[in-house]
Amino acid sequence: MTAWVIATRSRGKLAELVPMLAAHGISAIGLADAGLSESAAEAGIEVFDSFEANAVAKARHFAARTGQPCLADDSGLCIDALGGLPGVRSRRFARDAGWRVPVGVGEDAANAEAMLDACWNSGWAPPWAAHFACAAAFADGTRVVVTTGRSAGTIIPERAGDGGFGYDPWFMSADLGCTFAQASTAAKAQVSHRARAVAAVLAQLC
């Protein structure tokens, strides 16, 4: 069977998704492993206002580039106190807020600082109600399947845990009773927004 390409350069996402697909008998590789170097054109793919549209655009783009079945997702953190922000702009929240990321400070850390700053300035007291949302899309040149997943929790003001990536150390999962950064990969895979969205894709395809 032709391997699926997972449309991501994030090792964190691959660590979650590759075992999930393998459990369904599907081998999968990331963009780098597929031999696709990052191009400037990629910045123009996720330009839509919904997770679903961004995921579909990404799946179609990389399925066309690789000639292989492609699984893509677009996900983000939605905080009630911020009217649903960062939302689809979660990966770019610090830049959108005008933050100048210092040399040596990663984008994840800058986004988290911008997020916490916005939460404290919202007038709402912590912990802040939130959820992670995800749209997963599959494309293979002839069909497109898109589904969604959601995971509820709260944002805590102090990081907890060293695992995961992105906003995980500040997201206290309602399902797990710990942050996503404190949870094992296996535990997170049972309840995460991404896991739920991908499971729904697989339910339609397998």
What fraction strand?
15-25%
Give the overall silhouette: globular
Kindly name the structural category: alpha/beta
Strand order of the largest sheet: 2-1-3-4-5-6
Order of helices and strands: EHEHEHHEEEHH
Binned, the helix content reads 25-40%
CA distance, first residue to last residue = 13 Å
The biggest beta sheet, please? 6 strands, mixed
Helix count equals: 6
Q: Supply Rg.
A: 17 Å
Number of strands: 6
Instruction: Tell me, rounded to a whole number, the average pLDDT.
Output: 92
Key features?
6-stranded mixed beta sheet, 206 residues, alpha/beta, 6 helices
Structure commentary:
This protein is an alpha/beta fold. Helix content is 32%, strand content 21%. It contains 6 helices and 6 strands. It has helices at 11-22, 51-66, 93-96, 107-120, 185-191, 193-205, and strands spanning 4-6, 28-30, 70-79, 128-139, 144-155, 171-173. A 6-stranded mixed sheet has the order 2-1-3-4-5-6. Strand 1 (4-6), helix 1 (11-22) and strand 2 (28-30) form a beta-alpha-beta unit. The longest helix is centred in the N-terminal third of the chain and has 16 residues, at 51-66. The protein is globular and about 50 Å long. The mean pLDDT is 92.
Briefly say what this structure is.
The protein has 206 residues and is an alpha/beta fold. The chain contains six helices and six strands; from the N terminus they run βαβαβααβββαα.
Annotate the secondary structure layout.
Layout: E1 4-6, H1 11-22, E2 28-30, H2 51-66, E3 70-79, H3 93-96, H4 107-120, E4 128-139, E5 144-155, E6 171-173, H5 185-191, H6 193-205
Parallel strand pairs: 1-2, 1-3
Antiparallel strand pairs: 3-4, 4-5, 5-6
Helix pairs in contact: 1-5, 1-6, 5-6
